[in-house]
Amino acid sequence: QKGKYPERFAFYNLDLERNLRRKITLNEALKGALDRNEFRLMYQPIVNASGHVVSFEALMRWRYKGQEISPVEFIPLMEQSGRIVEAGNWVLEEACKMLAKMVQQNAEICMCVNISLIQFYDKGFVNNVNQVIERYAIPGHLLHLEVTESIFQSEQMMVNQKVSQLQQRGVKFSVDDFGTGYSSLSVIQNMNVDYIKIDRSFIQHIELKGLAIVQAVMNISQSLNFSVIAEGVETEKQRQMLEDCGIPYMQGYYFSRPLEQENALNYLKTAPEQ
Ligand code: C2E
Ligand code: CA
Ligand code: CA
Ligand code: CA
């Protein structure tokens, strides 16, 4: 028994150190990742009530020294260093290039792009989105920007102004991971968005407690005028329960995992007529 605790303590310290080292290494590597073309996007379909693809969500991937690093790990690092602004602009550009290709194929499919709080707050944000839309001649309404509720917590004037400036160009806004951000009801009431994405955690537990949440969001959506997307749908049971609640849009492994660009384009060609 003797000496056990100090050993354990040492073990945890080692773990912390390893974590820190990894962070430092990845941070260093992220500096040149864009220039080395290590990023790419994958595209996950969102379907409507009849199961037809209505949009793709662009999801960032990073291959570093032959390994795929999860965005759950590298996005926060880029947020801390501020590098997310440049990387986020790259994502926007790539996603719009893909969107332009789909428009050329005559597909009325939307593109959803994740926007980090830091990127949204950047002073060049609205201009940047406008420029990309113009560069690729994209109909504004096909571009959906996914933001988290956290952007609505402060500087309401500035936030609403930016949102409505882009909405005037047709761009749609979705609130991502809805229900996980501790927003008060008054904040929710002031979000002028077009879609709410119910977080996967509620869909996962829909057979237990999640159903009440899903129903509540559906009820609010009618009075506050936004549409609802359920994310992280993995099973037929979940899909059925969501359909019974009248959820108009769904996304998740049950329908499709994120696809490489080529596969996403092929998926559209083989999909049944809308
Ligand atoms: P998110 O925006 O909530 O994206 C959904 C995540 O859940 C994706 O993980 C997706 O692959 C995964 N997912 C989709 N359906 C299912 C399902 O049925 N079951 C399960 N277990 N997972 C599912 P991914 O691609 O690893 O992205 C993780 C997070 O990283 C994203 O969460 C988003 O917050 C962030 N992220 C990814 N790409 C970008 C980006 O370009 N910009 C920014 N700012 N954040 C990004
Ligand atoms: Ca998202
Ligand atoms: Ca989400
Ligand atoms: Ca999430």
Topology summary:
Elements lengths: L3 H30 L5 E10 L4 E12 L2 E3 L1 H11 L2 H21 L5 E5 L2 H5 L3 H11 L7 E6 L7 H13 L3 E7 L6 H5 L5 E4 L1 H5 L1 H19 L2 E4 L5 H9 L4 E2 L8 E2 H10 L4
Parallel strand pairs: 2-4, 4-5, 5-6, 6-7, 7-8, 8-9
Antiparallel strand pairs: 1-2, 1-9, 1-10, 2-3
This protein binds ligand C2E and calcium ion (CA) (3 copies).
Organism: Buttiauxella gaviniae
Protein name: Bifunctional diguanylate cyclase/phosphodiesterase
Structural class by secondary-structure content: alpha/beta
Please work out how many helical segments DSSP would assign.
11
Number of strands: 10
How far is the first residue's CA from the last residue's CA?
68 Å
With strands numbered from the N-terminus, the spatial order across the biggest sheet is 1-2-4-5-6-7-8-9
Order of helices and strands: HEEEHHEHHEHEHEHHEHEEH
Provide the helix percentage: 40-55%
The small-molecule ligands in this entry are: ligand C2E, calcium ion
**Biggest sheet, open or closed, and with what strands and sense?**
8 strands, mixed, barrel
| Overall average pLDDT | 93
User: What is the approximate shape?
Assistant: globular
What share of residues are in beta strands? 15-25%
Low-confidence stretches: none
Protein name: Bifunctional diguanylate cyclase/phosphodiesterase
